[in-house]
Amino acid sequence: MSDTRTETELTPAEISEQKAVRLAKRERMLSAGVDAYPVALPITDTIPAVRQRYPELEPDTKTGVEVSIAGRVVHLRNTGKLCFAALQSGDGARIQAMVSLAEVGEASLEEWKELVDLGDHLFVRGEVITSRRGELSILVREWRIAAKAILPLPNLHAELNEETRVRQRYLDLIAREQARYVVRARAAANTSLRATFASHGYLEVETPMLQTMHGGAAARPFVTNSNAFDTDLYLRIAPELFLKRAVVGGIERVFEINRNFRNEGADSTHSPEFAMLEAYQAYGDYEQMAALTQELVQNAAVAVTGSHVVTWADGTEYDLGGEWDRIGMYESLSDAVGREITPATPSDELEALAAEAELEVHLPTHGKLIEELWEHHVKGSLGRPTFVMDFPVDTSPLVREHRSKAGVVEKWDLYVRGFELATAYSELVDPVIQRERFVEQAKQAARGDVEAMRLDEEFLRALEHGMPPSGGMGMGIDRLLMAITGLGIRETILFPLVK
């Protein structure tokens, strides 16, 4: 007989025994000439469509309408002359299948009891009815196993542990509505992003994931080797330098939703592989990119939740609407430490402040000290979505110097929910200054900074052909979903990398 216990209720030995039992059922089917994994089935309807068509039938109703549907068995109850199964579609919608002796006959009913297990995909044909309790059902006249499950399902009435949710996401999708919701939310957010860009005349392109020179961000790359070219290649850390080449070539409004790879730590807001949006606009600047980014995020929030006020997984409401706050990095740090900090503040004074805060800064330049001190003293106080404006020059090698403030560049970081969601620049397009910045980065790399950029002659050659004044922005797609749903990064990535 079928064992209806679930995987989490079975010991490893029992799971192994269950697998053997199910494999024997598969073999029995094949020996009888019955395909345990048929290539096609005469399906006429989906479970969600049937439920939508008959939302409020009275109990014990017969519609006279016959449908053929398929779904995964997530509940099974076998009695004498009447058996019940709950069939679930991919989106979580369920319908009851009722298999009776009167409708299918004795042989078919006994085969049902012997062959059908929790987790199997099942095809049924029959009349749409409601049970005496009013449950929408299919009174089965024909059934077939559409795909035989060899392993039992987890307990669908208990919470999956995080390890199972992350490592076996397919089980998470079967068991949890929230997991299915995040997939739908991500798709809706990406659709919204593309629609917003289209409304502003942007073109979507693809740039290389394998690159001979890594660049576009301060990050440690993954290194691989090409047998065909007999050379080392780098997995993309950012698409920036190629997207700027596109702007040089005349694609004046361009964006890409891409996969990036950074050989660094993993935590609740960082993953070695992640999705990124980058966009560049000729004759724009970082102020215009701030307005665009606010529109992108707010439109995505409405697409996913129907409102700018989103409700996170823990029940907290967060308002992404309205005009977002803007603060200066140096000014807000000055307020936090109770003394004026400027681009001219000597590094030894900044190092003393870092020591007071017990901060360890690797290869401490002025800019790195400023940013570490700001994160320590200011970041945690940000509640609303906030653009943090005007960064140190030496940590921003691809950014134009500020048009009116000495010692800073026209760059902002957007903080939402306490983490960095996006960043944008008024782009540095002067090839002479860009070469100088790259040379300084090369010096930092020689001093042991593994995140420093390399001197990229191909990119400089493109700039030397003339890049118009431009604004550029980058935003993490995984983090956008974090901002909207309140979940951690491993929940917003469908299949995250785990050790």
UniProtKB/TrEMBL annotation:
Mg(2+) 2 binds at E420. Residues 193-496 form the Aminoacyl-transfer RNA synthetases class-II family profile domain. It is found in: Cytoplasm. This is Lysine--tRNA ligase. Pfam families: tRNA-synt_2 (PF00152), tRNA_anti-codon (PF01336). Homodimer. Its cofactor is Mg(2+). It catalyses: tRNA(Lys) + L-lysine + ATP = L-lysyl-tRNA(Lys) + AMP + diphosphate. CDD domains: LysRS_N. The gene is lysS. One of its GO terms (molecular function) is lysine-tRNA ligase activity. Belongs to the class-II aminoacyl-tRNA synthetase family. Binds 3 Mg(2+) ions per subunit. NCBIfam families: lysS_bact (TIGR00499), PRK00484.1 (NF001756).
